[in-house]
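pasting for the record
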Amino acid sequence: MSDVRERNKKLVEQLYGECINTGNPLLAVAAPDLNDLKEEVMGYLDELREQISAWPGVSVRGHRFGGTEFCLGNAEIGHTHPGGIFDIPMPRPIRDALLEEGLAQQHRWAPDSGWITFHIHNEKNLNHALWLARLSYLRYALKQSDDPQTLFERESASLSLSPRFAELVEKFLPTPSGGARKESIRTSLFG
């Protein structure tokens, strides 16, 4: 019985995603459980907002296209839209790596930009969305930190960054002259 319920829930999630992605209100008629799923998704977005807003320096405001925007200083680290859509700006190399590894999707309106999209429909998606948001946050936090190397090492471990992603993020460590690093100095993390 639980297998049938789980399959039905997945079908409803898929249908709900179709309603959101296509904007077709007629699809909603075919799935009476959509309102329950919408409430569940809104709960995940509330939890996302609560957790991200607790990070040092993060401000939360309305997004110009609806939803909620998260910023560190003047830099946007991501924004949500109703329906569980989470858009996150990334440097192009990080964005490309995320897409290659299937960890995010191309942004539907700006597929050739650094933006990625991630859909939040369950607890597992929420945790991954927080990971993606923290990755976006980290590149800006490194620029503001009094000790960016220690922050980088701590966050890399906390996020369980693979060597590939650690190397990509490490390029945002400030240099003594104030710019970003060009070469890797990851010896203390991955030898």
